[in-house]
């Protein structure tokens, strides 16, 4: 069965909602045979933030793991997504700052319990 990985990261206030970073990670995962849940594809930009978060959290529950994009710490939504992933016992991966190729690295100590 193909793993299903949720992509979490900052969107609000960034140019084009940071969609380029989400699509780059989705492509990186696809090249490794992993299916991604990409929040950039889940909500129209006109939807209120809190409704977007609810849609994203609903999809996250289907994932086998979560990957955090750079600067995820600055994102309210990504912090909620990480919290739910930890509650669900999902593996957590942190993408490094480099953009090409965005390999997946293990989380820093203390992120996963």
Q: Gist?
A:
The chain has 113 residues and is of the alpha/beta class. It contains 3 helices and 4 strands.
Describe the structure in your own words.
- It is a single chain.
- With 113 residues, the chain is of the alpha/beta class.
- It has a single domain (4-94), classed as Rossmann fold, CATH 3.40.50.
- It contains three helices and four strands, in the order βαβαβαβ.
- It has a four-stranded parallel beta sheet, sandwiched between helices.
- Helix 2 packs parallel to helix 3 (76-88).
- The longest helix has 13 residues, at 19-31.
- The N and C termini lie far apart (26 Å).
Would you spell out the secondary-structure blueprint of this structure?
Blueprint: E1 4-8, H1 19-31, E2 35-37, H2 49-60, E3 65-68, H3 76-88, E4 92-94
Parallel strand pairs: 1-2, 1-3, 3-4
Helix pairs in contact: 2-3
